[in-house]
Amino acid sequence: MTPEHFIDSEIFTFVIIPLLIFAARACDVTLQTVRIMLLSKGKRLLAPALGFVEILIWLMAIRQVFHNLSNIYCYIGYAGGFAMGNFVGMYLEERLAFGIEVVRIVTQKDASELVIYLRSKGYGVTSIDAQGASGHVNVIFTTVNRCHRTKVVDIIKRFNPKAFYTIEDVRAVSEGVFLPRSTKNINILHSARKGK
To answer: For residues 90 and 196, which has the higher predicted lDDT (pLDDT)?
Structure first.
C-alpha cells in the first residue's frame, strides 16, 4: 500500500465513516421526532411511511458502527448524530407548528376586555364565571391553530400579565371558530374539522 493510499484509508476510516454515521443518525432521529408528533396528531398514513425511512437509515448507521467496533470516532459520530437529531427534530416540530391547541385562561381580574379583543381578532372564545380557591375567577377557553399560540399568549400577557393559563394539544375538533393558518386572511372559519 502506497503512502497516498494509507492516508486516504485513514481519512476514510477516521473521518468519512464517522461523519456518515453522524449524518445518518441525525436524519433518523429527526424523522423519529417528526413521526411521533404525527402519531400524536392522528396522521395514520404519513407516520408509518416516515417510520419506514427512519428505520432504513438507522440500520445503515448501526451497520457501520458494528463494522468499525474498534473505531472510537464511529461511537462519537453515532452519539453526536443522536444529539443533533433531537435538536433538529425539536426545531422542525416547532417550525411546522401544525395541529390544534386549547388555551385555558384563569384570571381573578375582569376578563371582558380580553374576551372582546380575542373575538375581534377572529378567535373563538368561551368564557365562564367560576369559583377558585381564592374566590371568583373568570375561565376563558379558546381553541387555536398551533401556529397562533404565541400571538394568543402575547395577548393574554398584554391584558393580564399575572393570568394563569395552560395550553394543551387537541387531537380532534368538530364545529368550531378558527382563525385560518395563514394570517393574511383574517376571516373567521366555521368548519367541521376532524383529526386536524
So the answer is: 90
